[in-house]
Design brief:
alpha+beta, two-stranded antiparallel sheet, 25 helices, transmembrane helix, transmembrane, Solute carrier family 22 member 16
Length: about 575
């Protein structure tokens, strides 16, 4: 049956009334779990201060001008100012303990001094590390000694997770079109709970990676399908708003991570608590109905009718699927006319190729910037838990501003300034002296705010830039670029080890360039959705002629646009 009739039904049933609201908030509640798992690794792989090869029976410890009688006294203040701790044992031996190697002083004086000019024998330590437990009681780094030669394993944790996200989005997006939205939502959300708790009981690092990889697949599967689900249950009038605010639930997840990371400093307890935050969802997810669009697309009209009656009674109206039957004939003919399209059709002409490259670039920088700001917020200096909390909190107003601006100012005029502002904020972060913590954090939050606007908007903008026949392909390939950005992002954050501002420099330059390129895209606000490649190509060419008041106010156009949006 035709989507059109369902869209009309929303006009009768209400675009977002009691039934849809209950479903929406329930489905979005579980999306918080996606935000949680995507960023949980920030505190799982936290590396506290450590030294290696500590001898037995230590009596004195010196670090610069800090002294103590045990390693625990001095470890918290071990930073990069000096490279080792000097220790003395009860037998009179003196050692210099570094992070990855230690040295025994040959013939030391009786008095322990920090500097020593005599000979030393250097020893490379094997797995004998002493960690500072004042801040982090247990992380996977302290449990499995992921430091020095094995530091790269700890850094592998987030990129492998993101590759899981990439594969999950492809797999589950495809299955949801065949099996139905609800089954996938139920499977992926149950797996999120089970796997999330299993991660906490990983016997070793490789199990930890493997379980988190599958967890990433189901989390991204849930996120992809929940977007489709809420879109198919809400009418056109609120669709911008509902799709934007699934992202806001993700941001709440980030805030939850920072809060629980602050309260629980033992990684496996932290992981279990995080996994159970959204457990109430399990009590009502099995009551979820299948979406009317899916039921009608599969020809299950009787079930669709029953569902619409349920919606109607909940919303306090009654409704019939009367137009649906008449329309079925036309739909068949339209389907026959469509030829099979491939990704090459996104590059069908110079105009389309240019448009596709710019759109892909925005998807990429949106995701890269988003994760560089989120993951990197813990390295800003100051209180890392507060920084991560702010990085999540700042997103929520950005979606409110974004959904308001894109309907008032236009898609292009919201997206381009967002990217350019993010680029400027990055550049300023490099210039500002890093000991002014509040200013650095403020700039980082401005960057996150403006990149989140562009990132939340590109989803819908892509839908409007391409015709119906290749629309889902355009969004699909765009989100692939976005996943590439999220796989690259953790590595980009680790570049800070070479030069503290390298991640900001990369994101800043790219965001600025892509922001300027965005100005070359056509504006789609108030245009009906295009159906053919010709129409899509002509977007923005003859916009000047079109904008006679008579056309833009045509109600039929609005409805057609509504129908095409899916």
């Amino acid at each position: 049956a035709d989507n059109m009739s369902v869209e009309r039904i929303f006009d009768e049933l209400g675009h977002f009334k009691r039934f849809q609201a209950c479903l929406y908030f329930a489905a979005v509640f579980q999306a918080i779990a996606c935000g949680i798992h995507y960023l949980a690794s920030v505190f799982l792989v936290e590396t506290p201060n450590f030294v290696c090869g500590a001898p037995a029976n230590i009596t004195d410890v010196l670090y610069g001008n800090v002294s103590g009688t045990a390693l625990e006294d001095v470890l918290p203040s071990f930073n990069d100012a000096y490279s080792y701790l000097a220790v003395k044992t009860s037998t009179g031996d003196q050692w210099e303990l570094g992070r990855c190697q230690s040295a025994l002083r040959v013939n030391p004086t009786d008095f322990l001094s920090y500097e020593f000019d005599g000979d030393k024998t250097t020893i490379v330590c094997e797995q004998k590390f002493v960690f500072d437990h004042s801040q982090v009681i247990q992380s996977i780094v302290t449990d499995w000694n992921l430091v020095c030669d094995e530091e790269w394993l700890a850094q592998l944790c987030q990129p492998t997770f993101m590759i899981g996200v990439m594969i999950g989005a492809l797999v589950f997006g495809d299955i949801a079109d065949r099996v139905g939205r609800v089954k996938i939502l139920m499977v992926t959300s149950s797996c999120q709970f089970v796997l999330g708790v299993l991660v906490a009981f990983s016997p070793n690092y490789y199990w930890f990676l493997a379980i988190r990889f599958v967890l990433a697949m189901v989390s991204s599967g849930y996120l992809v399908v929940v977007f489709v689900y809420v879109t198919e249950f809400t009418g056109t009038k609120v669709r911008t708003w509902t799709s934007m605010h699934v992202h806001a639930a993700f941001a709440v997840g980030i805030m939850v991570v920072s809060l629980i990371g602050y309260l629980v400093r033992t990684w496996w307890i932290y992981q279990i608590v995080l996994s159970l935050v959204t457990s109430p969802f399990l009590f009502f997810c099995w009551k979820f109905p299948e979406t009317p669009f899916y039921l009608m697309a599969k020809g299950r009209l009787r079930e669709a009718q029953a569902l619409l009656e349920r919606i109607a009674s909940t919303n306090g109206l009654e409704c019939r699927l009367r137009e649906a039957e008449e329309k079925e004939g036309e739909e068949g003919q339209a389907k026959a006319a469509e030829k099979k399209l491939s990704i090459l059709d996104l590059f069908g002409s110079w105009r389309m190729a240019g448009r596709t490259i710019i759109v892909w670039a925005i998807w990429f920088i949106g995701s890269l910037g988003y994760y560089v700001f989120s993951l990197g917020s813990v390295n800003l200096g100051g209180n890392q838990y507060l920084n991560l909390f702010l990085a999540g909190a700042v997103e929520i107003p950005s979606y409110l501003v974004g959904s308001y601006a894109m309907d008032r100012v236009g898609r292009k005029k919201t997206c381009a300034p967002g990217l350019i502002l993010a680029g400027v904020a990055c550049m300023l972060m490099i210039v500002v002296p890093s000991d002014i913590h509040w200013l650095v954090t403020l700039l980082s939050m401005i960057g996150k705010f403006s990149i989140a606007i562009a990132f939340g908007l590109i989803y819908l903008y892509t839908c409007e830039l391409y015709p119906t026949i290749i629309r889902s392909l355009a969004v699909g390939s765009g989100s692939m670029m976005c996943r590439v950005g999220s796989v690259v992002a953790p590595y980009c954050v680790y570049l800070a080890d070479y030069w503290i501002h390298l991640p900001q420099l990369i994101v800043g330059i790219l965001a600025f360039i892509f922001g300027v390129l965005t100005l070359m895209l056509p504006e789609t606000l108030g245009q009906p959705l295009t159906t053919s490649l010709e129409e899509a190509q002509n977007l923005g060419v003859n916009a000047k002629k079109k904008s006679s008041p008579k056309d833009s106010k045509d109600p039929e156009n609005g409805l057609e646009m509504a129908q095409q949006r899916l």
